[in-house]
Amino acid sequence: xxxxxxxxxxxxxxxxxxxxxxxxxxxxxxxxxxxxxxxxxxxxxxxxxxxxxxxxxxxxxxxxxxxxxxxxxxxxxxxxxxxxxxxxxxxxxxxxxxxxxxxxxxxxxxxxxxxxxxxxxxxxxxxxxxxxxxxxxxxxxxxxxxxxxxxxxxxxxxxxxxxxxxxxxxxxxxxxxxxxxxxxxxxxxxxxxxxxxxxxxxxxxxxxxxxxxxxxxxxxxxxxxxxxxxxxxxxxxxxxxxxxxxxxxx
Length: 250
Ligand SMILES: [Zn+2]
Ligand SMILES: [Zn+2]
Description:
The protein is an alpha/beta fold and 250 residues long. The protein has 2 domains: 1-41, no CATH class; 43-241, 3-Layer(aba) Sandwich (Rossmann fold), CATH 3.40.50. The chain is built from 9 helices and 9 strands.
């Protein structure tokens, strides 16, 4: 019996730390969840609104104008950095992370988000604090972890930025946003958060990390709360940007 337990523990250790990964898409050996070739083949966002990362057609814009989402909303965040269009296989990876406990996806997303952010901020100051999008305690109990926090942990380590996961709390158990229309989303998310801890004096620039951004309304409600606490620069870092449709109504 004891031997069997020891052998199992050894195998788990061997698989986790000594064996190289196999790419989730092509199965080739890779030093992380996806190999470089497969990473490059993903639907990276190219031309987006700098404020809300809504995909825009650069050809049709001759001078800076607000994108449809920014035209319709007052966003309290300053800028949004998003990695991918929310489409296959990214959508499946994120679902695996959220609903199937595939935390290796969070590690990989955290790594590439950090690399991307580092490039974009090469001549700028990074935020002083990272705040992951909070999950309501009820959903946290069901899931056992907050996927945004798991991604944020990696980004915090890679970029050496303080992570403050407990400063904001989700106080309303909102229905899953994906099932709702844009108008219902707005109502669903109002008063969903509260600030429960003190934000360090002198912090004026934070990054909110989330897995997927759709209308931006959830990030905006949290941003408004932080803005009212005196934080004047709020950046959103998210892994994927979803849009309802080409004629999306905000
Ligand atoms: Zn691959
Ligand atoms: Zn915009």
